Structure formats: structure tokens, C-alpha cells
Amino acid sequence: MSILTTFQRLNPEQQRSLLLLLGTGCFFWISLTTLLPTLPTYLADLGGTKAQIGLVMGSFAIGLLCSRTWLGHLADTHSRKIVLYIGILVAGIAPLGYLLIPSIFPLIAVRAVHGISIAAFTTGYSAFVVDLSPAKYRGELIGYMSLVAPIGMGIGPALGGFLQESYGYGPLFLTSASFGFLGLLLVGWIPETPRYHKAHQEASLSVRSQRSFRELLSTRSLMIPALILLLIGLLFGILVTFLPLFLRETNLGLSAGLFYTVAAIASFSARILSGQASDRYGRGLFITGSLFCYFLSMIFLTQAKGPEGLLLAAIFEGIGGGILIPMIIALISDRSFSQERGRVYSVCLSGFDVGIAIAGPVIGSLGSFLSYPTIFTLSSSLAVIAIILFMSQSNKSWKTSLSFALGKERDLYAVDG
């Protein structure tokens, strides 16, 4: 009921734009996640070793890292919409590359290009959503609009696993591409005010708000969220690269597609509940809770002896991801000005990208020396470090950081009060 009430408080143009964005986002994430449980096994079937699979999967983040900065600048200075176009177009084209180039090392380039899709889409989508969200409903609307990820995760991996097992990799890659092109059709209907039309509104803002990329990266208010995302990006990169291989090898009675579907359901539920609550109780408490959920997920995964343990791991991973990403986006939105948000997202979310980029190749190169439980134990330690960092450094002093992380202090870095 709260969703409908909040939605009805928006003007018709905002409502229409958000609905179109929601549809576009669902198509994008379905396209992307159909390959989540299937691409590592595809690479293994091509004869790839653990190190090679890690290298190909990790190269996804090369495209992310190389494109985040200029895409963020493009979103701020020209158009959120054109950045969305780039993201959804690449999402449609890249799966065709996997189909047409069935060779390990050339797929590194295809995977890197595919990474541009998520860099462009998440930057344009997040900036668009915040532009359309009144400040007092910001956390709630970001939470609702970020539901496209768990919706896509709920459909994509199960669909991808079914297509791969029933029809093979060809129909899988064609279906992934088709969802990307369907999203492309919706983007064209989303209205946008050109960025230069807002110049007179932004001219009155202080010079302090016109921060360069270097200044943004060196600002503690944004550097700590970026480091948190770096650590969780490492954890997530390890999970995405090695979970399908772990489940195939151990035969514990749960497919990777079902794991991700359960995680998506948990993520969906968490986002529904956390967005509105964070507007009332602050972002800190929910970020702390999400990091703890990531820790529990890795512990359950390490100790899993059957499908029950895997399901618990999936639930806590879903809750952690469902809360962390929208809360970090809301947090850095609170701490930035409208005309710099594209760059802010590109800087902070690059932390997540770097983590994914490092995780696959580094852990993959050690794969012959490490068992899967050991790999997931290392992941749990990353969550512990993230918890300690956030609880001690997320605000202006260790005392206010601890209070903010426990929901007892407002965010002293928020620029709009």
C-alpha cells in the first residue's frame, strides 16, 4: 500500500518515467543474469581452467572501470538517457559475441565490452531515478526502483539454466540478447529535460559543489562507501566466478540457477522493507546489517553439506545485496549535488568494479591450491573488514561513525540536511 501511496504523490510525468525505467531495468537485468549461472560452465565446457575462467569472468570489470568515468561525465553534462541507451545496446549485442566466438582468450575482449553495459546502465538509471525522486522519499523510491535487479535475478538465472540444459548455449545467448533489445525499445519513450536547461538552476550552487574526479575520490564521505563496495565487489566476484563450479563439482542438490533465484526473492523482500525505513532511521543501520548478512552468507556456504545450508547462504546473500547497493546509492546521493551525481556514482561504484576485476583472476590463479570452502572463508573475512571499516570510518569521527552505523546518529556528511 505504501508503494502506491508514494507513487500517487508524484506528478504524472514522474510516474510515467519511473514506470518506463522499471520496465527497461527488468529487461536489462534479465538479459544480464541469464548468463550468471551458465557462463562459467560454458567456459569450462570450452576447456577453460580455473585461472582462465577467472580471467574471462573478471575481465567484465575491465569494461566497467575503463568506461565509468566518461559515462558519469556524459550523464552529468549531456544526458542520462544517452547513457542508458549505451548500456542497454551493449547488453543486447554482447551475448552474440559469446555465441560467435567460442574461444577462451578472444572472449576476454567480449566480456570486457559486456562490462560497459552495466557501467552505463547503472550510472544512467541511478541518476535518472534520483532526479525523479523528491528528497523526502529518496531512499524509499531508490529501494523500489532497485527492485529491477532482484526481479531480473529471479527470472534470469532460472531461465538461463533451463535454456542451457534443455536447448544448449545457442538459444541461451540469443534469448539474453533479445531481452537487451526489448529494453532498448522502452528507453526511447522516457522523457528527459536536456542537461543544459538546468544550468540556470545549478549556477547558484557554490563552487564547493563543482568537484573534480580527483576531489571526489579523495573526499572521505565518498571514499569510505567506495572502499566498502571494493570489499563487497571482491566477495561478489568470487561468488559469481566459483559458485557454479562449486555446485557442479560437489553435487549438493541445488543448482546455481535456483541459488540465485532464492537470493533474488530475499533481495526483493529486503528492498521493499528497507527503502522507506532508511528515510526514517538513516542509511547507516541498514548498511551495517547488510554487511553482516554477507558475512553470514559466506559462513553458511563454507559449512554447507546439503541444499539446506545452500538455501540459507542464498537467503542471506540476497538480503545483503538487496539492502547494500540501494543504501549506498542513497547514501552517496545524500552526500552529493544533483549536477555531479553521475560522476559520484562512477567514482563510488568503481570500487565494486575493481573488486570484481581482481577477484576472478587472483583467486582463479590460486584455484589449484585452494579448496572451494577455503575460497568462501576468505570471502567471509572481506565482509568482516567491511563491517569494521564502516563502523569506524563512515562519518566524521570514530564515535559519530559508530553511532551512525548503529542508527543513532544522522549523516553528518549529507549536503541537503
Structural notes for this entry:
- The protein is mainly alpha-helical and 417 residues long.
- It has one domain: MFS general substrate transporter like domains (Growth Hormone, Chain: A), CATH 1.20.1250.
- Helices cover 79% and strands 0% of the residues.
- The protein has helices at residues 2-8, 12-33, 39-45, 50-58, 60-77, 80-100, 104-131, 138-145, 148-166, 169-187, 199-202, 213-218, 220-250, 256-281, 284-303, 307-334, 341-365, 372-393, 398-405.
- Helix 4 packs parallel to helix 7, helix 6 (80-100) packs antiparallel against helix 7 (104-131) and helix 6 packs antiparallel against helix 10 (169-187).
- The protein is globular, with a radius of gyration of 20 Å.
- The two termini are 28 Å apart.
Summarize the structure.
With 417 residues, the protein is an all-alpha fold. The chain is 79% helix and 0% strand. It contains 19 helices and no strands.
Considering the chains and any ligands shown, give keywords for the structure.
single chain, 417 residues, mainly alpha, Growth Hormone, Chain: A, 79% helix
